[in-house]
């Protein structure tokens, strides 16, 4: 589980181009943004995502509540996540069907969803001009839905070796 900011002030990404010259690319200096909150089950590629206007304890609580509603009654989910302030806040409401497992400090490389953000930015969210907040949300939704529709892509992006040793 993790979240990523997507906004009008985007990034350009990498491109093949002539050495010594800058490639042309779109860049926006406006500041409307949204956040994709997502959880992925690496073993199967099952996923759940919400696009929310900001990151906060309330947004995280909403994400967890909505995610918990998608779980079967006899299922308990364990979420690996980083130690962002809103992930461990005292006011955070964690449903009983979910256990949060924080990663060690300063170790984003252990969070499988970090590669998902890189993939989304490289393939769907770079070199774009987004008119307003609604366009940012639409771009986030389109990018996530396109990624989720790629058979096996989420599994390949989140298949970290240390997770394979954990028995489901």
Task: Give a nutshell description of this structure.
By secondary structure, the chain is an alpha+beta fold. The protein is 32% helix and 18% strand.
Describe the structure.
The chain has a single domain (about 1-165), classed as Ribonuclease H-like superfamily/Ribonuclease H (Nucleotidyltransferase, domain 5), CATH 3.30.420.10. The protein has a 3-stranded antiparallel beta sheet, sandwiched between helices. The chain has a two-stranded parallel sheet with strand order 4-5. With about 170 residues, it is of the alpha+beta class. Helix 2 (about 115-125) crosses helix 3. The protein is about 30% helix and about 20% strand.
Please supply descriptive tags for the structure shown above.
168 residues; alpha+beta; Nucleotidyltransferase, domain 5; 3-stranded antiparallel beta sheet; 5 strands
